[in-house]
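job 3f2a | input accepted
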Amino acid sequence: MEIFVSYKSDDREKTMELVSFLESKGRKCWVAPRDVVLSYASDIVDAISKCHIFVVVISAVTCNSVHVLNEIEQAYKYYRN
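job 3f2a | predicted structure (81 res):
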């Protein structure tokens, strides 16, 4: 998996357009809920730890999402080392 895409569910339509575009260019994306297999929490942490690129779709509602902020924090933990 190459790209982890973090977004607020309110932005799902635009996010999926971005994912479709990236995947049409040969990039492999991980996006919830599409790629969740076992559980949100463990699958998200696992995907973040394996991605090469972490993308955050930012909008007015993103800044109010605890889940997006948690994903950013997880990515920071993995990539600062």
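job 3f2a | Residues 66-79 form the longest helix (14 residues).
job 3f2a | closed
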